[in-house]
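Give me the 3D structure for Leucine rich repeat containing 2.
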Amino acid sequence: MLGHTHTHTHTAGKNRMLGHTHTQSGRRCVCFSVSKQAGESRKLTAEMGPERKVDVPVYDLSLIKGIWEVRVKKYRQKQKKEQERVEKSALARIDQEWQYRIYCKTLKPTEKHQLHQYLERSTQPHTSTHNTLLLTGDQQQEENDLDHKNLIFRLDGDRWMDFPRELQWMTYLREWHIWGTRIRQLPDFLVLFTQLTVLEIAKNAITDLPPEIGKLAELRRLNVSYNRLSRVPPELGSCEKLERLDLAGNHNLSELPFELSSLKQLVHLDISENRFISIPICTLRMTSLQLLDLSNNQLTDLPQDMDRLEQLVTLFIHRNNLSYLPLCLANISTLKVIVVSGDELTCLPTKLCNSPDIKLIRLFDNTASEKRKKKKEEEKKKREKEKQRRWKEQKEEVKDSREKEFIEVYIGSLKDRDTVPFSTTKVSISCLL
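Predicted structure for Leucine rich repeat containing 2 (433 residues):
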């Protein structure tokens, strides 16, 4: 039997509590005895184990981060596969077509004509393939032309101030042709038209292009000429399949973002009738460019590295403030046409003029010719005025001579009359004649 040590504690009051602590078998025990006035008592015993040191867990955060990144990567790959599956699936397209057909039932005939309603397209590709074998060449061509027309949306006339809301159901369209309207902005649902290849929106009132235009990955032709643009979004550089870009006649456009350098397939660039004071840097990085129109701007010189455009065929730089042409233009072996004019053009390289690769150089609208033309017009106007003055004088002379002759005849006739009229007029005179 092991001994133990007691420590007693007494408290006075209405209730008495007796407590002691003892050690038994390597354990510390605390015993309490509570005595009430009614004589009831209870013994509470709490056992406390030996003192232990608590360890704080330590984790490797880089390991946790790596595990999390792997999970995120797998999740994104799963999302991408699901998106590709949905895009390849025909169910979404079929649903859109049926929604569009249902909506068309509610339209009036005039609205259908204005919106160029399209013929119904087949939703079963395998049946059309089978029928193709039974068609002649002409019939197949007509079938293809009809199907192509169904993929084109046209809108024109100044009565239009916004895009029709039913257009959002036609995401299968391949071309937009919007011309001569009062539309100021492109619609928010433009991003849904992922298969759009042609966007012709010339001669409208569009003030800017939305950044979402960069998501039109299949876009090959963009015409925003003669609108009210003052800037071009950098996101347009994501349309890497773009082959033709027309920004002419916006008047407030003075620069292009460097991100357009990624348009390596662009062959036609028209930025004429704007406010460019120099050629944009991105232009010299469009290596496939064949036609470049910089006319009617405020250019004062051309860069010395323009020969980086190794496939350039036609260059329009007339109606600027150029005083010379760089010799590097003669190094572009594909260059065939240069159209140049300038009030201060004084230097033209001989090599450029004598180059057999340059088929045509047209110099016009220079200062001397302008002055001569203006002088001729002034002289012509002066001669016309002099001619009119002489004609009027001759007319007056003829008129005076006729009146004089008439008066003489009239006065002579009065000699044979008994009475003389008190007064007369030209009308009465003409009647007498």
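The chain has eight helices and 14 strands. Let me know if you want a second pass.
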